[in-house]
From TrEMBL:
GO terms for molecular function: nucleic acid binding; peptide chain release factor N(5)-glutamine methyltransferase activity. Methylates the class 1 translation termination release factors RF1/PrfA and RF2/PrfB on the glutamine residue of the universally conserved GGQ motif. Coiled coil: none annotated. This is Release factor glutamine methyltransferase. One of its GO terms (biological process) is methylation. Belongs to the protein N5-glutamine methyltransferase family. PrmC subfamily. The lineage of its organism: Bacteria, Pseudomonadati, Pseudomonadota, Alphaproteobacteria, Hyphomicrobiales.
Length: 273
């Protein structure tokens, strides 16, 4: 399950430098190219030196600049939010494909973090509404800010609570989606420094076997779906069998494991039929 975190940042050193320079000087990519021969202005030069030292100490670029692109959206981050990873976009793609043509779908995003998944889905479906939960006040504040920035805050309700705690039994959904913590506790110290030192442990630690969150979600997931609904969960590459069996025992008639572009197990898809 370490594969997801084998490299916290995919950027090359050259791209790292450009992104840090853009942040330090307040330039976009084109402005940076146009002014590459100019004398570096202050205080940008000082900021760039400070950013470079942080990067050399192992801090990911997205943490330094405070934002990350996900599904074509620029999302702001804070210390309580996981940096969105490209592979998590599979959840968004599957949800949007499934919900295409549905009149007014309802989605619940359990453990929303920065709001990346819920915001991306709702942005792609103008009639959709979502509930997004998290146990962290700081993460929820960041997710709300991101939703406001992308003009979907009126269609996402943010609630504090672990998994189903903030979602009454009377509320049913067309899609349940979650990217829960799935790293076994004892594995966290072996992850890349960029991850174990800078990502929030709460968003990484899946308990002794990495499956605690799935157990909590599976306990109620089947009865929280509307007829014909779909549940989607990101998983670690060695968890496909365990998680699919768990949701099969929890009352889902159809459970599939989807692979990412590297051929690794990445998403469990579950429905009643």
């Amino acid at each position: 399950m370490r594969d997801r975190f084998r490299a916290a940042e995919l950027e090359t050193p050259d791209l790292d430098a450009r992104l840090l320079a853009q942040a330090a000087f307040g330039f976009d990519a084109m402005a940076l190219v146009r002014r590459e021969r100019d004398i570096a202005p202050e205080p940008g030069a000082t900021d760039l030196e400070r950013f470079a030292l942080r990067r050399l100490a192992g801090e990911p670029v997205s943490r330094i600049v405070g934002h990350k692109e996900f599904w074509g959206l620029d999302l702001t981050l804070n210390d309580a939010t996981l940096v969105p990873r490209p592979e998590t976009e599979m959840l968004v793609a599957e949800a949007l494909h499934f919900l295409e043509g549905k009149r007014a779908p309802r989605i619940v995003d359990l453990g929303t973090g920065s709001g990346a998944i819920a915001i991306s889905i709702v942005t792609g479906l103008p009639k959709a509404k979502a509930i997004a939960t998290d146990v962290s006040d700081e993460a929820l504040a960041m997710a709300r800010q991101n939703a406001e920035r992308h003009a979907v805050a009126d269609r996402i309700e943010f609630r504090k609570g672990a998994w189903w705690q903030a979602v009454p039994h009377t509320e049913l959904f067309d899609v349940i989606v979650s990217n829960p913590p799935y790293i076994a506790t004892e594995v966290i110290d072996t992850l890349m420094p960029e991850v174990k030192m800078f990502d929030p442990k709460l968003a990484l630690d899946g308990g002794w076997d990495g499956l605690e969150a799935y157990r909590a979600i599976a306990a109620q997931a089947a009865r929280r779906l509307n007829p014909g609904g779909l549940a989607l969960f990101e998983i670690g590459s060695n968890q496909g069998g365990a998680v699919s069996r768990m949701f099969g025992r929890a009352g889902f008639g159809r459970v599939e494991v989807l692979k990412d572009l590297q051929g690794l197990d990445r998403v469990v898809l579950a429905s009643h039929s």
